[in-house]
């Protein structure tokens, strides 16, 4: 088993699927000849030809809308939006079309499309290279929403997403593309190549959608999170010496309700963490689910640590990004309650 | 106010209370335009995109190069076309009445636009796919779609193939080459291009056909569809049905200072033709040309069908609030049914008497279907589809949270 970066793991997943299924096509802005602005599709056009991997005009509605037409006809498009921050021109196609075609046609047509997009901050990306728009998709019936945080999961989940019969929004935390990140921006960058979670099996393997992964077992408090915040939470927990359980949700829609409930019933305390802004963010939904199912097991109010309700800033990157210190404060509050 | 800059606001030629006025329209004589080669380039069809292809003259005779290109269709073909259009119109009339009687919630008529969908549909082959709007029910009728299903969808009862999930007239009929209609305008124009790309990539020798109205050409996805078709050159026909009105908004608002919608395609490098949409033979001839072009691998084409929306926008609309009451009667391209009927009579293949008989036969058939479908439930006599069906088909497999909601509903 080789160690790969998340970029290499994602590319490997697409390579495996292009090889296995001739109906798979890959397209988006700069994904063809150039291999993607993040190199996620490097070499694929050369290997499989322009009819399988190609460049598109700068038009997100075209990228998704063409994919929907192709998917409805029987192909398996895996398309890329260059940054999640630029998905909005395709929002009509995603929410009103891709998400609804199966239901509104009573299954005459379906839409097996994967829409990949780099997401998240912590990279001085400013307003339009840092956003976490997952709640705009988890609110839409008919979509599935996935976000991996390790190369292993990135490959396995992308393969599953590409084999799924329904539309999947596949969010890739670009802060984790090359290595894990614990929120300490002063520390030297670590590569996945020297991290055990960079171990990626060769060939085809699948990780089911809708299933969370326990990143760290514990019994004192449950942390429900995903993406970059898994590693920030882990560092915060370690620095406190706290026996916390960190659940990496991986699948944001549908949520793994059973895993969430099992962990919170065990620990009796819960903190939800995400980069996205707070109000009407996914944490609100998760907290509501926990409150409904685990109320009599709770020993403290559920807290959330999120991005602030402001557009993602540039200069104030580390005031905005929910770092270890903010997570420690929330954990102490929940543990002392 | 000394500035020389002024905004321009388009206005229709006449408003309620005024005389209909189409004197400013340029309607060229039938037979004036040549038939371009199937592989014509956008630069060589400037005239075709700005003028109007017409075959039937005022006397009902087919004239000119497009008439020659079409040849003389046999009488049965034209009589079938006439029956298709009459069926469409009778259904429209009956369904609007049923809506007024409170038997169902909503209806959209296509009166005056029947020739376009009816003649176009008869030129398609099995496996071709239409990406229609809500005003191309004629594609289903001329495609011999079972009328029980068509009406069942409108009544949202047990005959409805879509289990009551969609607003009336938002059909879906995959086996009849009819993609699921969305309420969101313009989106399907891009799907047509994507579907056509998939056909080309998988070696399927079938067409995809996009449909859009004049008002919706203003949507982002009109641009997206044209650009994508131009970028990848797939086997797609992109239709614009210009019926002069987008609900209450005069077509000039969407058209702006452009002359025609067809001409917009030329800027994308796509060939385009502009056609008299009320001339059944012109629709036949141009459809024959377009399908031969696209099936022959010469790439996409855009067609602007020039017509007039005779009815209200929908059963929820009252056009007398924004246009003259008799405007449809003044429309210079007339009525597609009357014009084909006149042509058939001129050929000696039809008569007033046969027309009256045909009308009675079609009406009886539709009344019969309507009775059967209404017996399965109307808004006045509801026989609802079980609520549990809401949860089916959101996904291929029902996830846990939806399973819990179904339990909460108690079903």
TrEMBL record, chain A:
Its EC number is 1.2.4.4. The keyword Oxidoreductase applies. GO terms for molecular function: branched-chain 2-oxo acid dehydrogenase activity. Its cofactor is thiamine diphosphate. The keyword Hydrolase does not apply. InterPro entries: THDP-binding, Transketo_C/PFOR_II, Transketolase-like_Pyr-bd, Transketolase_C. Keywords: Oxidoreductase. One of its GO terms (biological process) is response to nutrient. Residues 4-179 form the Transketolase-like pyrimidine-binding domain. This is 3-methyl-2-oxobutanoate dehydrogenase (2-methylpropanoyl-transferring). It comes from Ciceribacter selenitireducens ATCC BAA-1503. The lineage of its organism: Bacteria, Pseudomonadati, Pseudomonadota, Alphaproteobacteria, Hyphomicrobiales.
UniProtKB/TrEMBL annotation, chain B:
Coiled coil: none annotated. The keyword Oxidoreductase applies. Its EC number is 1.2.4.4. Keywords: Oxidoreductase, Thiamine pyrophosphate. Residues 85-378 form the Dehydrogenase E1 component domain. One of its GO terms (biological process) is branched-chain amino acid catabolic process. GO terms for molecular function: branched-chain 2-oxo acid dehydrogenase activity. Its cofactor is thiamine diphosphate. It catalyses: N(6)-[(R)-lipoyl]-L-lysyl-[protein] + 3-methyl-2-oxobutanoate + H(+) = N(6)-[(R)-S(8)-2-methylpropanoyldihydrolipoyl]-L-lysyl-[protein] + CO2. Residues 1-23 are annotated as: Disordered. InterPro entries: Alpha-ketoacid_DH_E1_comp, DH_E1, Oxoisoval_DH_suAlpha_N_dom, THDP-binding. CDD domains: TPP_E1_PDC_ADC_BCADC. Residues 12-42 form the 2-oxoisovalerate dehydrogenase E1 alpha subunit N-terminal domain. PANTHER family: 2-OXOISOVALERATE DEHYDROGENASE SUBUNIT ALPHA, MITOCHONDRIAL. Belongs to the BCKDHA family. The branched-chain alpha-keto dehydrogenase complex catalyzes the overall conversion of alpha-keto acids to acyl-CoA and CO(2). It contains multiple copies of three enzymatic components: branched-chain alpha-keto acid decarboxylase (E1), lipoamide acyltransferase (E2) and lipoamide dehydrogenase (E3). This is 2-oxoisovalerate dehydrogenase subunit alpha. It comes from Ciceribacter selenitireducens ATCC BAA-1503.
């Amino acid at each position: 088993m080789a160690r790969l970066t998340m970029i290499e793991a994602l590319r490997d997943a697409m390579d495996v699927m292009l090889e296995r299924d001739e109906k798979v096509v890959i397209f988006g802005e700069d994904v063809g000849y150039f291999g993607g602005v993040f190199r996620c599709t490097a070499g694929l056009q050369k290997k499989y030809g322009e009819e399988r991997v190609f460049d598109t005009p700068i038009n997100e509605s075209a990228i998704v809308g063409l994919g929907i037409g192709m998917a409805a006809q029987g192909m398996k498009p895996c398309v890329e939006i260059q940054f999640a921050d630029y998905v909005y021109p395709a929002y009509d196609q995603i929410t009103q079309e891709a998400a609804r075609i199966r239901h509104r046609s009573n299954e005459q047509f379906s839409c097996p499309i994967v829409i990949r997009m780099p997401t998240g901050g912590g990279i001085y990306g400013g307003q339009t290279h840092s956003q976490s728009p997952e709640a705009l998709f988890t609110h839409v019936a008919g979509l599935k929403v996935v976000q991996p945080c390790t190369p292993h999961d990135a490959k396995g989940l992308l393969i599953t997403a590409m084999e799924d019969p329904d539309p999947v929004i596949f969010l890739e935390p670009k802060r984790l593309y090359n290595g894990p990140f614990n929120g300490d921006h002063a520390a030297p960058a670590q590569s996945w190549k020297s991290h055990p979670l960079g171990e990626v099996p060769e060939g085809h393997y699948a990780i089911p959608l809708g299933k969370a992964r326990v990143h760290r077992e514990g019994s004192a408090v449950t942390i429900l999170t995903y993406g970059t915040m898994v590693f920030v939470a882990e560092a915060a927990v370690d620095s406190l010496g706290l026996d916390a359980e960190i659940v990496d949700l991986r699948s944001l829609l549908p949520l793994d309700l059973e895993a969430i409930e099992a962990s919170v019933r065990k620990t009796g305390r819960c903190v939800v963490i995400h980069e996205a802004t707070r109000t009407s963010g996914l944490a609100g939904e998760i907290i509501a689910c926990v409150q409904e199912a685990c109320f009599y097991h709770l020993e403290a109010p559920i807290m959330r640590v999120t991005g602030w309700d402001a557009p993602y800033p540039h200069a104030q990157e580390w005031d905005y990004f929910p770092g270890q210190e903010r997570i420690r404060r929330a954990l102490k509050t929940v543990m002392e309650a | 106010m000394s500035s020389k800059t002024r905004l321009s606001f388009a206005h229709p030629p006449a408003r309620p209370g005024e005389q209909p006025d189409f004197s400013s329209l340029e309607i060229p004589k039938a037979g004036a335009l040549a038939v371009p080669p199937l592989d014509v380039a956008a630069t060589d069809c400037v005239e075709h995109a700005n003028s109007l292809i017409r075959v039937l003259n005022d006397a009902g005779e087919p004239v000119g190069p497009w008439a020659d290109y079409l040849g003389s269709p046999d009488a049965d073909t034209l009589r079938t076309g006439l029956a298709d259009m009459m069926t469409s119109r009778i259904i429209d009339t009956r369904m609007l009445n049923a809506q007024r009687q409170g038997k169902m919630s909503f209806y959209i008529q296509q009166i005056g636009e029947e020739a376009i969908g009816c003649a176009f549909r008869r030129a398609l082959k099995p496996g071709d796919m239409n990406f229609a709007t809500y005003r191309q029910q004629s594609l289903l009728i001329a495609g011999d779609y079972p009328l029980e299903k068509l009406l069942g969808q409108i009544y949202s009862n047990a005959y409805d193939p879509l289990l009551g999930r969609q607003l009336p007239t938002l059909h879906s009929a995959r086996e009849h080459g009819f993609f699921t209609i969305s309420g969101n305008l313009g989106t399907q124009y891009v799907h047509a291009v994507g579907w056509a790309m998939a056909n080309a990539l998988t070696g399927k020798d079938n067409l995809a056909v996009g449909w859009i109205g004049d008002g919706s050409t203003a949507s982002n996805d009109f641009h997206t569809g044209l650009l994508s078709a131009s970028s990848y050159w797939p086997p797609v026909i992109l239709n614009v049905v210009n019926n002069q009105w987008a609900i209450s908004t005069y077509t000039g608002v969407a058209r702006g200072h452009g002359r025609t919608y067809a001409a917009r395609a030329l800027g994308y490098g796509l060939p385009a033709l502009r056609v008299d949409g009320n001339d059944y033979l012109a629709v036949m001839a141009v459809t024959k040309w377009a399908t031969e072009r696209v099936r022959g691998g010469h790439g996409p084409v855009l067609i602007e069908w020039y017509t007039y929306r005779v009815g209200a926008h929908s059963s929820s609309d009252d056009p007398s609030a924004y246009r003259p009451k008799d405007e449809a009667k003044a429309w210079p391209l007339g009525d597609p049914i009357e014009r084909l009927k006149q042509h058939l009579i001129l050929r000696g293949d039809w008569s007033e008497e046969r027309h009256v008989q045909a009308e009675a036969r079609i009406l009886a058939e539709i009344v019969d279907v309507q009775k059967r479908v209404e017996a399965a439930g109307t808004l006045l006599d509801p026989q609802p589809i079980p609520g549990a069906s809401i949860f089916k088909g959101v996904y291929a497999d029902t996830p846990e949270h939806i399973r819990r909601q179904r339990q909460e509903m108690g079903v």
